[in-house]
Design goal:
Blueprint (H helix, E strand, L loop, with lengths): L8 H7 L3 H16 L3 H9 L5 H9 L4 H8 L1
Helix pairs in contact: 2-3, 2-4, 4-5
Length: 73
């Protein structure tokens, strides 16, 4: 007995993580690991023009998060 389930486009999108979403999630995780707060990491991760290495280096060199955010954005 076969059972077919109908899935809406919205439900399907919720099930399938896009490559962009995976990259942003990974970037956010790296930024959190470096010391950024969750919300700041999410903003930076979603900003494609932000250099991840520079963002991490700024905190590693003692730059306050607020100042780093102003520099990066």
């Amino acid at each position: 007995m076969e059972v077919e389930a109908e899935v809406s486009a919205t439900e399907l999108h919720d099930l399938v993580e896009t490559e962009l979403e995976r990259v942003e999630r990974w970037r956010a995780e790296e930024l959190e690991r470096a010391g950024y707060e969750l919300s700041a990491a999410a903003v930076l991760a979603a900003s494609a023009g932000v250099d991840l290495h520079l963002a991490i280096e700024l905190l590693a060199r003692g730059c306050p998060q607020d100042t780093a955010m102003q520099i990066l954005l």
